Amino acid sequence: MAEENRRLTGALSLEGISLTLRLGALPFERIEPRKVLVDLKWTGEVFKSGRPVVDYSLVCSVLKNGVEAEYLFIEELAADILDLLEERWPGAWTVTVGKTFPPVDPTMERASVSITGGYAT
User: Fold this and answer.
1) Where are the beta strands (DSSP E) in 8-65?
2) What's the CATH number for 2-118?
3) Which pTM was predicted?
4) How does pLDDT run across 9-25, given as a tens digit for each residue?
């Protein structure tokens, strides 16, 4: 295979990963679990020993089983996700967590935060 003979770097985007958890700074926001959408971008060496470095299914499983059930802030959730990803897959990660209709006036459709960590290999 061509990828075994050379180092291929690239970017992988995983968008709209749905996690169900309690999220919000205000107590009433955490009464019921809500769906929170997570977008991931990874940059690094695409293949190792002829196989893709990042397994989409495993990423989703790690997120589902690795995050806590409740967060006050989207920034905390994004940081925890970044830690989980960096422990398993080398490369540069960007994690974006979005919260729909936060309780602010005037009405807002979505608030999101993006954090970056790791390094490009």
Assistant:
1) 9-23, 34-45, 47-48, 51-52
2) 3.30.1130.10
3) 0.88
4) 889 999 999 999 999 99
